[in-house]
Predict the 3D structure of the following.
Amino acid sequence: MPRIARNLLGEFFIHNMVQGINREFIFENDKQKQKYLNLMKKYSQKYELLIISYCIMDNHAHLLTYTNDTKRLSLFMKDINTEYALYYNKLKDRVGYVFRNRFTSKIISDQNQLYTCIKYIHMNPVKAKIVDSEEKYKFSSYNDYINKNNFINSKILNLVFLSEENYIEKFKSIKYQIMNLENETTKIEDVLEEFHTENKQNINGKKINSTVIKEFIKYLTENEYKFTKVEIAKALNISRATFYRKLEKRR
């Protein structure tokens, strides 16, 4: 059951996502993931904010945080990413940006969304087919909840579940839902360019054929992008009528 959003009280659950520049694997091995995790621990203590859940993947990371001061969150994320970028560039003997954007954030507005976000974050490696179950992934907070260690303590359990009683049962019963969190601010034109680069498909207006449309829609679905058919047709530079006609041809 939804409860009153804590941001009305000046307290915030916020989902944050960082991604490697050009989707590079900036956390490509355990050592690099552990480095980022260590920085999370270091700066969460410095800025006195709570890590509710996290998952560090090869080219991006999710952090669900709790704070009563969004300025602290900005400093927290800035310090983590700045220190990690220095580390990564030195390691790879490179210069330039490491992260795609500064970071993206979204306030969680109710209890159901909070649960869904936690599950979504922990399911990242399962959806990516890295592991077949959440508990098998080393660099997420799933096992922190099961074992009540690392970032997870009584304060967090009471914040999330309102009580520690039977919290593991509640935690395991959360259902997975697609949230599209990392793609919320993504422009369809950027996705189309990614598709063109990765698949070398012809995406030139009316010359586009039904097969390419089918492949592009499949690409959107697999990467959990959510765009309307009108938005897709506009991005492909074709009319809605032409778009629907080509969709019919592919059936």
In short: The two ends are 41 Å apart (CA to CA). The chain has two domains: 6-179, 186-249. Residues 1-9 have pLDDT under 50 and may be disordered. Residues 70-92 form the longest helix (23 residues).
